[in-house]
Amino acid sequence: MAVPRFDLQSHSTFSDGALAPADVVGRAAQAGIELLALSDHDTVDGVAEALAAGREAGIAVVTAVEVSAVDPPHEDLHVLGYAIDHRDPDLLAALAGYRGERAARADRMAAALRELGWALDAAPLAARRAGDLPIGRPHLAEAAFAHPANAQRVAAEGLETFSDLLVAYLTPGAPAYRGRERPTVAEAIATIHAAGGLAVWAHPFWDVEDPAAVVASLERFAAAGLDGVEAFYVTHTEAQVRLLHEHALRLGLLATGSADFHGPEHPRFARFGAFATYGLEPVLGRVAQPYLD
User: Fold this and answer.
1) Alpha carbon 261 to chain centroid distance?
2) What is the SS3 string spanning 211-276?
3) Are 134 and 99 in contact (CB under 8 A)?
4) What CATH superfamily is the domain 6-96+183-292?
5) Is 82 helix (H, G, I), strand (E, B) or coil?
6) What mean pLDDT is reported for the chain?
7) Which of 6, 10, 32, 283 gives a 20 to 30 Å CA spacing to 144?
8) For residues 44 and 64, what is the distance between their CA atoms, to the nearest angstrom?
9) Where are the domains of the chain?
């Protein structure tokens, strides 16, 4: 059977996306996607809604989550969990703990932005807290970018979108970035496996630039039980895709892909299917089971 048209990472308002889960699924269906993952950061709260919307729209949805992890010296690596039991109580407890760490980290970064002279629009951040929704770096960047008091500084620094501010101030090595301590990649893999899922390293070249370091990390993660790698990704170059695909096959790993949809107005992640396979064969394994059923 031919590989379905897939997009295996997307985000809703339950993490840092702009749309409700059902609307994410609807957009994917309109784009011709046949197999979708809603993979919010450290939460599965939107999965049930996505599954129901998938049944209504005739699109296969695989249960998923994106766990934010650390792997020193890399402070922010992401591990996708597919085909998980999204109702598993141990998974829910683990994710709640990870979100607690994220919340404390967000507070530290907000304080750092203010120390650097940035005003933050408190209303959207307070609304997310009131709704028990996580606050991530994109939300902090938007809160600074949108505040009228920062308009002159935004223009002076040539920051055209909130994403530019995020890169300039909230990425590793940037002045307002603050790291986290857990979970490690190995802990994230174990959490996903305990919930019956498959663990896949998300967008390796988004977080690690050096090809040799990516390959070495992939080998270490595979030894720790990693099941796959997101070889096909919207910002990966052809050389990066080919390198990841080659080593995925060598290590017996899945080779998945996504456009990392965050919303139709996002400056970078706004369109489903916006990634290339360059003629290489994806390896989806059990991730594709909802499409086959």
Assistant:
1) 9
2) HHHHHHHHHHHHHCCCCEEEEEECCCCHHHHHHHHHHHHHHCCEEEEECCECCCCCCCCCCCCCCC
3) yes
4) Metal-dependent hydrolases (3.20.20.140)
5) strand
6) 95
7) 10
8) 7
9) 6-96+183-292, 105-169
